[in-house]
UniProtKB/TrEMBL annotation:
It comes from Micromonospora polyrhachis. It comes from the Bacteria. This is Knr4/Smi1-like domain-containing protein. InterPro entries: Knr4/Smi1-like_sf.
Length: 205
């Protein structure tokens, strides 16, 4: 299909409920091959796609040019036990809005936003694994909860000492909260901006 918004709809509303995960990918196909097919309207004037017969998919795949890029990864609801384990380990509950989001029908796991930012969000289990691996870095940030990042050095974290807990950005080399940069006043604001595709990292430049 040629519309990212519709591919996202399919991933979130069909693939995630059926399989627990849905992907939106982008790739190029040889123009001479695509010229065999007409662009079709599917379910609406703005929904455009190529209809490739199932028996021709292997041939279609053979004409993909270059890399297949994962634009977005959506996941199904996170289980209650992960939140219970996080509460026990952190001594504090993760914000209710964060739990509601991760336990919704689908949530944005990772990928590229319309803003151009690449965002990766963590489940509570991954949060605990990261904080255990960070060791002294975690100890230097009391009340921290690593809920995501940019897929590289920058971590999106909550400061659970505050209510509501602000969303901050810390580098993996950070020695304490003094160097953290505020990204959102609370996690609800972060979620809204991610869902709208407007979130951008503020690196304090």
């Amino acid at each position: 299909m040629l519309n990212r918004w519709y591919a996202t709809k399919i991933a979130r509303e069909w693939n995630v409920p059926a399989e627990g995960v849905g992907y939106v990918t982008r790739f190029d196909v040889q123009r001479s091959y695509l010229d065999r097919y007409e662009v079709q309207q599917a379910g609406g004037r703005d929904v455009l796609e190529y209809w490739i017969p199932a028996e021709e998919l292997d041939d279609f795949n053979a004409h993909i040019v270059g890399a297949i890029v994962e634009e977005a990864d959506f996941r199904g609801p996170v289980g209650d036990q992960e939140f219970a384990d996080a509460y026990e380990a952190l001594g504090r509950a993760l914000p209710a809005a964060w739990r509601t989001y991760l336990q919704g029908e689908s949530w944005f796991r990772r990928g590229w936003l319309a803003s151009g930012a690449y965002v990766w969000l963590n489940t509570p289990r991954e949060l605990l694994e990261l904080q255990d691996a960070w060791g002294e870095g975690t100890d230097a940030h009391p009340g921290i909860a690593i809920i995501g990042g940019d897929g590289s050095r920058e971590q999106l974290v909550l400061d659970l000492r505050c209510d509501p807990a602000p969303v901050m950005l810390v580098d993996v080399s950070s020695g304490g909260w003094d160097s953290a940069i505020r990204q959102a006043d609370d996690v609800s604001q972060l979620i809204s901006r991610i869902e709208a595709g407007t979130f951008e990292f503020d690196f304090g430049d």
